[in-house]
Amino acid sequence: MGCQQTESSSQVLEAMNWYFGGRECRMVTFVDDVASSLAGQEWEVNVIDANYEEKKYLVYLDDGIVSAPTPAAGQTLVAINYSPDDTAEDIALAFEADMDAAGVEVMIELDGASAEYQNKFLGNITAEVLTNAALLTFASEAVGFGGSIGAVAQGGAELSTEQSFTEVTSDTTGSLILDKIFSGGNASITLTLAEMTTERWKDLVGNTFGSIVTVNATELVGFGDDKLYKSAFTFAGQLVGHPIRLPNSDRSADIIIPKTVPELASVNYSGQDIQGAEFTFSALRDTSKPAGARLFARGDHSLI
Fold first, then answer.
1. Mean pLDDT of the chain
2. Cβ distance 44 to 128 under 8 Å?
3. C-alpha–C-alpha distance, residues 18 and 254, integer Å
4. Judging by beta carbons within 10 Å of its beta carbon (0-12, 13-18, 19+), is residue 28 exposed, middle or buried?
5. Spatial distance between the Cα atoms of 113 and 117, rounded to a whole number of angstroms
6. Greatest alpha-carbon span in the chain
7. Given this model, what pLDDT does residue 10 score?
8. Rounded distance between C-alpha atoms, residue 256 and residue 281, angstroms
9. CA-CA-CA-CA torsion sign (192, 196, 201, 207)
10. What is the pLDDT of residues 251-262, one digit of tens each?
């Protein structure tokens, strides 16, 4: 139709919001129920939602007889439905199914009677109250931290990749390349932060390759001997970029480096130029992710 408008180009201006940190991850181990012995066991599950804000749930084991607990203000109640005398493995399966049905923002992996649940989004959460589930066993697997790293200077961020190949030739075909065998690669994102606050000095420098030193109750951020010979995985996190043009619910064009440590390259000090801190986030191979997305990925990162 003549009135229909169509785009003549799919090009975009892709300004991004950037987040750096880690996801909270913990494990619960269930036991066999004996005549509804587990009914009413309750515990808190605090998550970070797609808007990078904390969301709180109160989870309880419901045998179909016990009365539901009263959640605190701001909490959402989630019932884990099971039958009296169910095995620990059955209850773990019910936990996975009912948490998913309630839309709780966690990824769950089962191992028999144990369920590991990891937040889908990075960030620090309020400490969870677990004392009302004394018959269950809980363990902390990873502590969530981080959040938005603030405004990025003019010029934005840049994703760079490198690939290495071994060229296949033969004596009879001379220098003609018969094939290329992929032998590895890497990826990195560089950006300049326009808001290098004291907290970002701590989060991106002091808590990574640098250090936070306390002298007479005063904190200093610096570089020294403290992190010599330590693995980067000790203080690595993930970097996520989300296009400003899209709602937070649409993560189809997000960029993620699942495991990385920010490397501070330079900070300018000037009375004329806006201060900026240039960082490089180099990808580390994260074997907890699918083989094809262990360095970086584009798309809905909450799925991995």
1. 95
2. yes
3. 10
4. buried
5. 13
6. 81
7. 75
8. 11
9. negative
10. 999 999 999 999
Go through 149-187 and write b for each residue having 16 or more CB atoms within 10 A of its CB, e for each that does not. beebbeeebebeeeeeeeeeeeeeeeeeeeeeeeeeeeb
Per-residue pLDDT tens over the stretch 208-266: 999 999 999 999 999 999 999 999 999 999 999 999 999 999 999 999 999 999 999 99
Question: In the structure, what pLDDT confidence band is assigned to residue 287 with cuts at 50, 70 and 90?
Answer: very high
